[in-house]
Design brief:
This protein has 14 helices and 40 strands. With 700 residues, the protein is α+β, with helices and mostly antiparallel strands. It has an 8-stranded antiparallel sheet, with no helix packed on it. The chain has a 6-stranded mixed sheet with strand order 1-8-9-4-3-2, with helices on one face. Strands 5, 6, 7, 10, 11 and 12 form a 6-stranded antiparallel sheet that branches.
Length: 700
């Protein structure tokens, strides 16, 4: 045992060179920083010094040298020359770090034993010496050489070991948008921790941004997370509490979002959703448009200069980062990013900053194997100052009263009608549908697809007007969606149904009680479009543009657009196919609607249940589902519930079928249930009938 202790003691005293991350009782801090060195464009990155530190660790003295980029296998030499004696001899001690082998000391008889820790992952070299005769205050200089150790590649200025740190650090803002665009459980899993996604494949998602922000204490701005659909998806995943905690700790900046036009309406819904999900109000706003939101202290928006803040009126403007260049790599920040950071730290321009981040689904920052490395690199370089919300509010402004481009026009008849409808009751769903189908996108084909379904907003608005003044009606002479083809309406004091002769389908069903109006049935295009393969999109086909859309209830699976002839009666409308082979009668009941089928042969159809979608998008909501022979119930745990009754066979699937899978990352080898791919908050009832049968939709 005694021999073992002696061997261990000898090994501890030997000079060593290691290539592992350095871990000590405390991280290197700004107070340890002595000097910043400009980037040398002519030097190899591994011999380009950018920062130098000193500190005392117990009885030892440590030097740390940050280089621009270090390989795992060293190809550089370092020298640290010390002036520790009176008289100003700059070379009374020289520590050498060769490419290979042990570090050395000149003169060799000094009794000082240097040890070296190389950290190529964070591009640092730490030299630790036993502090026997070195005074607490001395001058030193660092020299870097290429692999042959002949001619210096970079030489720092002479600096004191107790010099004050440089007065300026590199101000850094991390800014992301498109952070959680998820309309289905499948998209939630993909955008949180997707498999084989992101620009480089592998796992990718918002999870890694939040995880590393918390781990390293680096604030991030998530510009559009406070969109109602994103917050609802986040809550479905059970992550609202985590984001709220990070926000309260200042690690996540959550602006109010002008996610559509008119911006002031979108902002009001962003604030409403944030309040509903327990997230704080903000002094920051974000708009993908150029329109200035004058009621906010700070606004994120695209500017021509991404390295300075600007002001327009009383609002300070924070630029978005350039998105073309690769910023985060598997070796840490790209070299151009590092050069920009050190240039900002050394700049005499106090208003200069570096803004990084970008469109998250297309950014390497979200890669599992890159996020941690890049956040760690920033955290381990204390000459970088990640900016908090408070920092951004007080950061110097360079450009005053800059002109902004004119905002896009929203003066359409549909917007005027929406403005008249207000922002309560069913108008909330109308606005949400409008914003979903007019969302800004650079994908022109997707924009055309969205526009093909925009007319359905008119159907919701017609129900909103009915809810304000309910009456009995049975008619087929109103063009509610503006497609030039009249739709049919049957209504009572309690129910309002919109029927299309094309397909004899129930596109919308609404119910009114003492608490106000409620939606029961709606097409899936009200919630999102574009879920099918884009090769199957055909924007010129109107409601048939996207084959993944469920275009309402009771359309024929074999021919959903078959033309029917309507016959109007009080409280009911009967539709007969042109060949007379199938008849559908829609009749209002005191507690719902009944559809009677007459004909021969097999019938397959679907019912898309969209129970109070505004509740899901603006508050935490729990939906319940139960099925038995001939009966299916669906609705809110603390709200409206509806049931489907029929002698026909039916099966059901809905978005809550995915809840059991949410605690696991996306797995391409798992067969997920059909509801995994349904838009929130949809439930679909598949009906399979034969001959004559009825289906009832009743409120409970």
């Amino acid at each position: 045992m005694q021999r073992l202790l002696i061997v261990l003691l000898i090994l501890a005293l030997l000079p060593i060179a290691a290539c592992t991350p350095a871990t000590f009782h405390r991280q290197w801090a700004v107070a340890d920083l002595r000097l910043l060195d400009p980037v040398d464009q002519d030097s190899s990155p591994s011999a380009d010094i950018i920062a130098v530190y000193t500190r005392r660790v117990g009885y030892d003295l440590e030097f740390r040298i940050d280089l621009l980029d270090l390989p795992v296998v060293p190809d550089y030499c370092l020298q640290i020359t010390l002036d520790t004696l009176p008289g100003g001899n700059p070379r009374d001690l020289t520590i050498t770090v060769p490419v290979k082998g042990r570090p050395g000391i000149i003169p060799s008889g000094s009794g000082i034993f240097p040890r070296v820790i190389r950290d190529p992952w964070n591009d640092t070299v730490t030299v630790r010496v036993n502090n026997r005769s070195i005074p607490r205050s001395f001058s030193f200089q660092v020299i870097a050489f290429p692999a042959d150790c002949s001619t210096p590649a970079d030489v720092t200025a002479v600096v004191r070991s107790d010099a004050l740190p440089p007065s300026r650090r590199a101000p850094l803002a991390l800014v992301f948008w498109n952070v959680f665009p998820a309309a289905t459980p499948a998209q939630v899993m993909r955008r949180w921790e997707g498999a084989h996604t992101g620009p480089n494949g592998g796992r990718h998602g918002l999870k890694f941004i939040l995880q590393e922000s918390e781990r390293y204490g680096i604030p991030v701005a998530l510009l559009d997370l406070k969109m109602p659909a994103s917050l609802a998806a986040l809550d479905f995943l059970g992550l609202t509490r985590q984001v709220r905690s990070l926000s309260n700790r200042g690690l996540v900046i959550l602006p109010d979002v002008a996610y559509g036009e008119p911006a002031r309406v979108a902002l009001s819904f962003s604030r409403l959703a944030a309040e509903g999900f327990g997230l704080p109000a903000s002094q920051f706003s974000y708009s993908p448009f150029a329109e200035l939101q004058s009621n906010y202290l700070v606004q994120f928006l695209p500017l021509s200069d991404s390295s300075h803040l600007a002001r327009s009126g009383n609002t300070r403007l924070i630029p978005l980062p350039p998105t073309k260049a690769i910023q985060a790599t598997e070796n840490g920040p790209a070299l151009d990013v590092r050069r920009a950071l050190i240039a900002a730290a050394l700049s005499d321009d106090r208003s200069r900053l570096v803004v990084l981040g970008g469109d998250l689904p297309h950014s390497t920052w979200g890669n599992e194997n890159m996020a941690g490395l890049n956040f760690e690199w920033i955290a381990t370089h204390p000459w970088i100052q990640p900016l908090t919300a408070v920092d951004l509010i007080s950061f110097p402004i360079s450009l005053e009263n800059i002109p902004l481009p004119s905002s896009p026009s929203t003066s359409t008849q549909l917007v005027s009608t929406l403005m008249t409808a207000g922002k309560i009751g069913l108008a909330v769903s109308a606005w949400q549908t409008y914003f979903t189908l007019s969302a800004p996108t650079e994908d022109e084909m997707l924009a055309s697809l969205q526009a093909a379904y925009l007319g359905q907003v008119g159907e919701i608005l017609s129900a909103s007007r009915w809810a304000d003044d309910p009456s009995a009606l049975s008619t087929c002479d109103q063009d509610l969606d503006g497609d030039g083809i009249p739709e049919c309406i049957i209504s009572s004091q309690e129910f309002f149904a919109v029927l299309h002769p094309q397909g004899a389908r129930l596109t919308n069903l609404f119910y009114r009680d003492a608490t106000g109006p409620h939606q029961i049935v709606g097409p899936s295009s009200q919630l999102t479009v574009g879920l099918s393969d884009r090769s199957e999109w055909n924007p010129g086909q109107g409601e048939a543009a996207d084959p993944s859309v469920v275009p309402g209830a009771f359309s024929d699976e074999t021919d959903p657009w078959l033309q029917y002839d309507p016959e109007i009666s009080p409280r009911s409308i009967t539709f007969t196919s042109e060949d007379g082979s199938r008849v559908k009668t829609f009749q209002l009941l005191p507690d719902g609607i009944q559809v009677s089928y007459q004909g021969s042969g097999s019938v397959r159809t679907r019912i898309p249940l969209v129970v109070d979608p505004q509740v899901f998008f603006f508050n935490p909501a729990r939906f319940l589902s139960s099925a038995s022979s001939g009966d299916y119930s669906w609705g809110l745990a603390d709200g409206l519930k509806v049931e489907i009754l029929s002698e026909a066979n039916f099966s059901v699937y809905n978005f809550i079928d995915s809840i059991a899978f949410l605690s696991f990352p996306e797995d391409p080898d798992v067969t997920y249930p059909p509801g995994h791919y349904l838009p929130f908050p949809l439930s679909v009832v598949n009906i399979h009938g034969q001959g004559d049968f009825t289906v009832q939709i009743r409120v409970k």
